[in-house]
Write a structure and sequence with these properties.
The protein has about 200 residues and is an alpha+beta fold. The protein has one domain: NADH Oxidase. It has six helices and four strands; from the N terminus they run ααβααβαβαβ. The chain has a four-stranded antiparallel beta sheet. The radius of gyration is 19 Å and the shape is globular. The chain starts with a helix and ends in a 26-residue tail after the last strand. The mean pLDDT is about 95. It binds flavin mononucleotide (FMN). The site of flavin mononucleotide (FMN) has 8 residues, from strand 3. This is Nitroreductase. GO terms for molecular function: oxidoreductase activity. Belongs to the nitroreductase family. Its cofactor is FMN. Pfam families: Nitroreductase.
Length: about 200
C-alpha cells in the first residue's frame, strides 16, 4: 500500500471484530509510528494498550468520570444504569484501547511542539494500522480531560496530558468516506509581494 492510498483510503472505524490484533503487530505499528517528526527529539508519546481483563476497570473509571461530570443527571436510576451498562458493553466490545499521553511542558511553545508531535505519531499509527488491515478510531471523549479520571488511572494530571484514546481492532464495517472540501477553497499560492 503506498502512502497516497493509505492517506486517502483510511477510514475511522466504529465497528470492530472481537478477534484481537497480535501484540507483535501492534508493536510494529507503534514502533514505526515513532518515526514521527519530533522537535528536540523529545519523542513525547507514551502509550498504554488497555485490553483483556484491564478493559473492565478502564470502563468503570470512564463511567465514574461521566457520572462525576453529570452526564447522567436528570435520568431516573434505572435509565442511568442502562445507559452506563451500554457504555461499558461498548467499551468491552473493542479489542484494544491505546491511551496516548505526554508530559506537559510549562512553556507554551514547547508544549505545542510536543502536542503536535504526538498528533503526528497518532496519524502515523492510523496509517500504519490501515496497512496491516487494522482499524482505528481516534477518540477525544470528555473523560480524557477529567483530572479525576487521569489520577484514578494512575496518570498525574498536573504532569501529563492525555492526548487521545485510540480504539483498535480489525474492522467489522468500513464506513463510506466523508467527502472533503475541494482544496482549491482553502489553498492559495502567494506569488506576489504583499502590498
Ligand atoms: C483530534 C481528533 C479527535 C477525534 N475524536 C473523535 C471522537 O471522540 N469520536 C469519534 O467518533 N471520532 C473522533 N475523531 C474522528 C473523526 O470523527 C473522523 O476523522 C472524521 O469523522 C472523518 O472520518 P475519516 O477519519 O473516516 O475520514 C477524531 C478525530 C480527531 C483528529
Amino acid at each position: 500500500m503506498d502512502v497516497f492510498e493509505a492517506v486517502t483510503k483510511r477510514r475511522s472505524i466504529h465497528d470492530f471484530k472481537q478477534e484481537p490484533v497480535d501484540s507483535g503487530i501492534l508493536k510494529e505499528i507503534f514502533a514505526a509510528a515513532a518515526w514521527a517528526p519530533t522537535h528536540r527529539m523529545i519523542e513525547p508519546w507514551e502509550i498504554e494498550v488497555i485490553q483483556k481483563e484491564a478493559a473492565s476497570s478502564f470502563a468503570d473509571l470512564i463511567i465514574d468520570s461521566y457520572l462525576r461530570m453529570g452526564y447522567a443527571e436528570g435520568y431516573e436510576e434505572k435509565k442511568k444504569c442502562k445507559l452506563m451498562e451500554g457504555i461499558k458493553q461498548h467499551i468491552l466490545s473493542i479489542p484494544h484501547h491505546a491511551l496516548i499521553y505526554m508530559e506537559k511542558d510549562k512553556d507554551l511553545r514547547l508544549y505545542e511542539e510536543d502536542y503536535a508531535a504526538v498528533c503526528a505519531f497518532i496519524q502515523n499509527v492510523q496509517l500504519l494500522a490501515w496497512r496491516y488491515g487494522v482499524g482505528v478510531l481516534w477518540t477525544s471523549n470528555p473523560y480524557i480531560y477529567d483530572a479525576g479520571f487521569a489520577s484514578s488511572w494512575g496518570i498525574d494530571p498536573k504532569k501529563h496530558k492525555i492526548v487521545a484514546v485510540l480504539q483498535m481492532g480489525y474492522p467489522n464495517k468500513i464506513p463510506e468516506p466523508k467527502n472533503r472540501t475541494p482544496i482549491t477553497n482553502k489553498l492559495k499560492f502567494m506569488n506576489n509581494p504583499i502590498k
